[in-house]
């Protein structure tokens, strides 16, 4: 079957394309921005790429068109598709129909931590010899790829609450029919499609409604928003996560304040500990959720904890890009105040009084609209200094954050100026954390090059 994908270079759609190719289909696709690294991955997989949305790409007609959720009415190829008789579907529905029907699906949902938790869970199952398939919105270092078919019934999917397509406004995750489901957390986000928190809670409850009676939903006991979701009705087994002081089924106890060592208990019995290079309470909870989910499919806690000790992380999730003259530079995907706060808190607990420079581009639709601007400054309290980047298209002036910032802060609006400023701020022992859910104009690589040039000059 010839499958043509509209909007193929997004993380989800690009991974889906590679899975479709692995299933034996002829795969092609188009996008407005066909560039590395996704374009390289797709080309290596033998997938034909078309730059732009010319309707001519639908002739000769493919057997099926998969429409990405970034595609809108008025787009030339979308309008040509609707005028034709070519069958079309959404990405999540394609995944369900062509891959997940016969699988035991382990879905990871939540406002934060989906990618990291999915990667942890896939690695735990791999470590346990279960050869899972997966589709993850990032590249786990243990695998070096964002998607694979796997060699067993088990399939881990990062389950996004974003809508499926212009013709299907349901959240992606309702298509997957999971048996094991992690709900990491729930906060207001995606202001471009959800009017309020209640609307997101409704979608999460739709996900809970799809779980079978023998399924399992795993969530933190302290999350009041998820508590309201579960209170709307849950017909599956429940496993709650929390600190030792809670009545949760799975407990953690920190063995160091940074979160790089912790021990785990199940139903009141300590089962082992994790020592790893990762930091932050959010990662402890992510790991605990992965252990609980793996337990539901038969992996013992002892095996899961041993696997987490060898978890190598995910690209763009506090990824250390390099160290030059004692200055460490990190790339992080944080796109919400809570993610910013927990990431910086974890790093602060690890490095003590060392200087931390947070470099933040408010790029998500919600951040651009200024929905979280009242709490953004305080989210950076664990940094020593914040450099905000004012990108084009942001609906509010970031200068407003300077007046309420708990730490020294400034605003820069040019990429070259930003790199120069960061070079000036770098010193031996400092940590520069670049936070954006986009490419950030290549600032990461430019900064590393500038630091190396200073070192050799």
Automatic annotation (TrEMBL):
Per the record, a Pfam family? Mur_ligase_M
Which of the seven top EC classes does this enzyme belong to? ligase
Which InterPro entries has this protein been placed in? Mpl, Mur-like_cat_sf, Mur_ligase_C, Mur_ligase_C_dom_sf, Mur_ligase_cen, Mur_ligase_N, MurCDEF_pg_biosynth
The residues covered by the Mur ligase C-terminal domain are 316-438
Q: Which cofactor does it need?
A: Mg(2+)
Q: Which SUPFAM superfamilies match?
A: MurCD N-terminal domain, MurD-like peptide ligases, catalytic domain, MurD-like peptide ligases, peptide-binding domain
Entry EC no(s): 6.3.2.45
The reaction(s) annotated as catalysed by this protein in its Swiss-Prot or TrEMBL entry are:
UDP-N-acetyl-alpha-D-muramate + L-alanyl-gamma-D-glutamyl-meso-2,6-diaminopimelate + ATP = UDP-N-acetyl-alpha-D-muramoyl-L-alanyl-gamma-D-glutamyl-meso-2,6-diaminopimelate + ADP + phosphate + H(+)
Please verify whether the record's keywords include ATP-binding: yes
Give the record's keywords alphabetically: ATP-binding, Cell cycle, Cell division, Cell shape, Cell wall biogenesis/degradation, Ligase, Magnesium, Nucleotide-binding, Peptidoglycan synthesis
Q: Which residues bind ATP?
A: 110-116
Q: Does the keyword Repeat apply?
A: no
Q: Where is the Mur ligase central domain?
A: 108-294
According to the UniProt entry, the coiled-coil residues are: none
Ranges where the Mur ligase N-terminal catalytic domain occurs: 2-99
Its pathway is: Cell wall biogenesis; peptidoglycan recycling
- One MF term in GO for this entry? UDP-N-acetylmuramate-L-alanyl-gamma-D-glutamyl-meso-2,6-diaminoheptanedioate ligase activity
Query: Its Gene Ontology biological processes?
Result: cell division; cell wall organization; peptidoglycan biosynthetic process; peptidoglycan turnover; regulation of cell shape
NCBIfam families in the cross-refs? mpl
Q: What function is annotated for this protein?
A: Reutilizes the intact tripeptide L-alanyl-gamma-D-glutamyl-meso-diaminopimelate by linking it to UDP-N-acetylmuramate.
What family does this belong to?
Belongs to the MurCDEF family. Mpl subfamily.
Q: What is this protein called?
A: UDP-N-acetylmuramate--L-alanyl-gamma-D-glutamyl-meso-2,6-diaminoheptandioate ligase
UniProt source species: Simiduia aestuariiviva
């Amino acid at each position: 079957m010839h499958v043509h994908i509209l909007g193929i270079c997004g993380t989800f759609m690009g991974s889906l394309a590679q899975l479709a190719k692995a299933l034996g289909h002829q795969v092609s696709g188009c996008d407005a921005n066909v560039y590395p690294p996704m374009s390289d991955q797709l080309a290596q997989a033998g997938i034909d790429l078309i730059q732009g949305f010319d309707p001519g790409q639908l002739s000769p007609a493919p057997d099926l068109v998969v429409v990405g959720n970034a595609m809108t009415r008025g787009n030339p190829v979308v309008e040509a598709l609707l005028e034709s008789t070519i069958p079309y579907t959404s990405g999540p529905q394609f995944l369900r129909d062509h891959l997940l029907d016969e699988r035991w699906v382990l879905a990871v949902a939540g406002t934060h931590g989906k990618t990291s938790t999915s990667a942890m869970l896939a690695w735990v199952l791999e470590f346990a010899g279960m050869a899972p398939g997966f589709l993850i919105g990032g590249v786990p270092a243990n695998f070096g790829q964002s998607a694979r078919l796997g060699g067993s019934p088990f399939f881990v999917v990062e389950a996004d609450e974003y809508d499926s397509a212009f013709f299907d406004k349901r959240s992606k995750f309702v298509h997957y029919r999971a048996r094991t489901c992690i709900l990491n957390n729930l906060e207001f986000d995606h202001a471009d499609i959800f009017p309020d928190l209640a609307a997101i809670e409704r979608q999460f409850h739709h996900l809970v409604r799809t779980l079978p009676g023998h399924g399992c939903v795993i969530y933190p006991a302290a999350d009041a928003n998820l508590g309201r979701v579960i209170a709307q009705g849950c017909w599956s087994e429940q496993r709650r996560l929390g600190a030792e002081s809670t009545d949760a089924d799975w407990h953690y106890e920190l063995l160091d304040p940074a979160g790089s060592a912790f021990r785990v208990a199940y139903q009141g019995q300590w089962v082992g500990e994790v020592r790893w290079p990762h930091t932050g309470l959010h990662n402890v909870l992510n790991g605990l959720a992965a252990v609980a989910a793996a337990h539901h499919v038969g992996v013992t806690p002892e095996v899961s904890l041993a696997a987490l000790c060898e978890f190598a992380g995910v690209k763009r999730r506090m990824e250390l890009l390099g160290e030059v003259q004692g200055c460490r530079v990190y790339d992080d995907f944080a796109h919400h105040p809570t993610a910013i706060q927990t990431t910086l808190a974890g790093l602060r607990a690890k490095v003590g009084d060392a200087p931390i420079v947070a470099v933040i581009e408010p790029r998500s639709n919600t951040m651009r609209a200024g929905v979280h601007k009242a709490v953004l400054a305080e989210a950076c309290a664990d940094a020593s200094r914040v450099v905000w980047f004012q990108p084009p298209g942001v609906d509010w002036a970031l200068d407003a954050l300077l007046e309420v910032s708990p730490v020294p802060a400034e605003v820069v609006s040019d990429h070259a100026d930003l790199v120069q400023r960061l070079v000036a701020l770098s010193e031996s022992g400092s940590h520069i954390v670049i936070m954006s859910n986009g490419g950030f104009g290549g600032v990461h690589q430019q900064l590393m090059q500038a630091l190396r040039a200073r070192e050799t000059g």
